[in-house]
TrEMBL record, chain A:
The keyword Protease appears for this protein: no
Chief location category: cytoplasm
Organism: Paenibacillus antri
Keywords: ATP-binding, Cytoplasm, Glutamine amidotransferase, Hydrolase, Ligase, Nucleotide-binding, Purine biosynthesis
UniProt name for this protein: Phosphoribosylformylglycinamidine synthase subunit PurQ
NCBIfam families: FGAM_synth_I (TIGR01737), PRK03619.1 (NF002957)
Gene this chain is encoded by: purQ
UniProtKB/TrEMBL annotation, chain B:
Catalytic reaction(s) noted: N(2)-formyl-N(1)-(5-phospho-beta-D-ribosyl)glycinamide + L-glutamine + ATP + H2O = 2-formamido-N(1)-(5-O-phospho-beta-D-ribosyl)acetamidine + L-glutamate + ADP + phosphate + H(+)
Places the protein is found: Cytoplasm
Name of the featured protein: Phosphoribosylformylglycinamidine synthase subunit PurS
EC number: 6.3.5.3
Family: Belongs to the PurS family.
Pfam families membership: PurS (PF02700)
InterPro entries, sorted: PurS, PurS-like_sf
Biological-process GO terms, alphabetical: 'de novo' IMP biosynthetic process
Pathway: Purine metabolism; IMP biosynthesis via de novo pathway; 5-amino-1-(5-phospho-D-ribosyl)imidazole from N(2)-formyl-N(1)-(5-phospho-D-ribosyl)glycinamide: step 1/2
């Protein structure tokens, strides 16, 4: 499985994502600059956290117009896996690959702390190695993670089981329905505020993020393309 | 022409910054203040003096980039130079 880690001016979790892939699934991984115009060789695209374009105007608003995002859209349409973390989630929302928008945390504070998530749907390519309803520890680090969508969108997210992670216990930002992560309808694009790449070893305080990466690898191996090239 | 663009959080969407400022004003004794909404103000200098063209262009800019219409409203004013 070929993995791309996108790099925007201001990305700062790109190295963590790269290392997490090396550490958890040992698959070929490359940094891809935001001006790239070809992602065809990649099976999983990671849109990392950070402060793309300084978060000017709104988080992710400017990054969404980077040339590479057109390629991410094509990859998503082709059914490839796209995982947006934190600022990456914000970029996916701004680009319309996921529904909804982000607001400032209701506390107005930047929150950086371990949080407990409930795996609300373990029937996705990103969560199949978790148990349904399992509680996991994944850190957050954001000032604008207060997910918003209107009631109609929320009903649709619930009906389609697109809510993948919810904050368990205290909601750190005030998000609608305690949402911490959602997928698109097809389930191949996931956006989440917590950072699984910062939880891949007990040395980091938790290794619960590891299974997100192993899940995607298993899912990819289960596809026709994966089976044809398995054993690489 | 010059365009001034105002972007605000939609009425039905909680504005955490506005809430915090409202709380601060109340604690200072400005009890007459009801809801506070915080937004963005932008000035754009345009190289056209055709108001119709400018209006169309600025509206597109707002829809595409300057506002996130999921949670924000926008309005703008145009002034000839």
């Amino acid at each position: 499985m070929n993995v791309a880690v996108l790099v925007f001016p201001g990305s700062n979790c790109d190295i963590d994502c790269y290392k997490a892939v090396e550490h958890t699934i040992r698959q070929p991984v490359e940094y891809v600059w935001h001006q790239a115009t070809d992602l065809s060789k990649f099976d999983l695209i990671l849109v990392p956290g950070g402060f793309s374009y300084g978060d000017y105007l709104r988080c992710g608003a400017i990054a969404r117009f980077s040339p590479v995002m057109e390629e991410v859209r094509k990859a998503a349409e082709a059914g490839k896996y796209v995982l947006g973390i934190c600022n990456g989630f914000q970029i996916l929302l701004e680009s319309g690959l996921l529904p909804g928008a982000m607001r400032r945390n209701n506390s107005l504070k930047f929150k950086c702390a371990p949080t407990t998530l409930e795996v609300a749907n373990n029937d996705t390519a990103f969560t199949r190695d978790y148990a349904a309803g399992e509680k996991i520890q994944i850190p957050i680090a954001h000032g604008e993670g207060n997910y918003y969508c209107d009631d109609e969108t929320l009903a649709r997210l619930e009906a389609n089981r697109q809510i993948v992670f919810r904050y368990s216990g205290e909601n750190p930002n005030g998000s609608v329905a305690d949402i911490a992560g959602i997928t698109n309808e097809r389930g191949n694009v996931l956006g989440m505020m917590p950072h699984p790449e910062r939880a891949v070893d007990t040395l980091l305080g938790s290794s619960d993020g590891k299974r997100m990466f192993t899940s995607v690898l298993t899912a990819w191996r289960g596809t026709a393309h994966g089976a044809a090239t398995a054993g690489r | 022409m010059k365009a001034t663009v105002f972007v605000t959080v939609k009425e039905n969407v909680l504005d955490p910054q506005g809430k915090a400022v409202q709380g601060a004003l109340h604690s200072m004794g400005f009890d007459e203040v009801g809801e506070v909404r915080i937004g963005k103000y932008m000035e754009l200098n345009l190289d056209t003096n055709d108001a119709l063209v400018a209006e169309e262009r600025v509206r597109t800019m707002c829809e595409k980039l300057l506002a996130n219409t999921v949670i924000e409203d926008y309005r703008f004013e145009l002034k000839g130079e």
